Amino acid sequence: MLDQPSGYRHDVALHNKLHSSDSNAQRSLWSNLMTSPSVLDNLRISQSLSSLREQGSTSAELPAFLRPLPTKDAAEDVNYLQIKGALSIPILPLQNALLQAYIEYVHPYMPLMDLNNFLSIINTRDGQNGQTSLFLYQAVMFAASAFIEIAH
After folding, report:
1. How many domains does the chain have?
2. Which terminus of the chain faces fewer neighbouring Cβ atoms within 10 Å, N or C?
């Protein structure tokens, strides 16, 4: 088997730009996300996920910042996705690690969305700043999954 180097290359200029004063708003949002008591409420998320599995509901128990699934989706499709675990989100510490990895490693190279708006929606977790799609939230975490330690 060939030993291939990683495709990741550390870009010093980009790293400095990311950590410059221009990114204070993003770092401030991330800091609030990591220290906010509402965000660190693991019990609430765990209860939401367990009730989601137990009751067979699709979106009623998702966190308030996640938009409910469209009603046009066939119930059998939603049930299948639910059974396969596709409508769930990871535990909060893993969500936080994935979001941090996305901010540090993915978004600087592929800035495909308004990160400040996305983080403000997630930061409040109560839906007061709007909602985002479950699938977008999962896609962001999936994109970052290559950049976190397996121990998470």
Report:
1. 1
2. N
88-141 residue pLDDT tens = 999 999 999 999 999 999 999 999 999 999 999 999 999 999 999 999 999 999
CA atoms within 13 A on the CB side of 45: 19
Within a domain: 78: yes
Higher-pLDDT residue of 46, 66: 66
Query: Under a CB-based contact definition with an 8 Å cutoff, are residues 129 and 121 in contact?
Result: yes
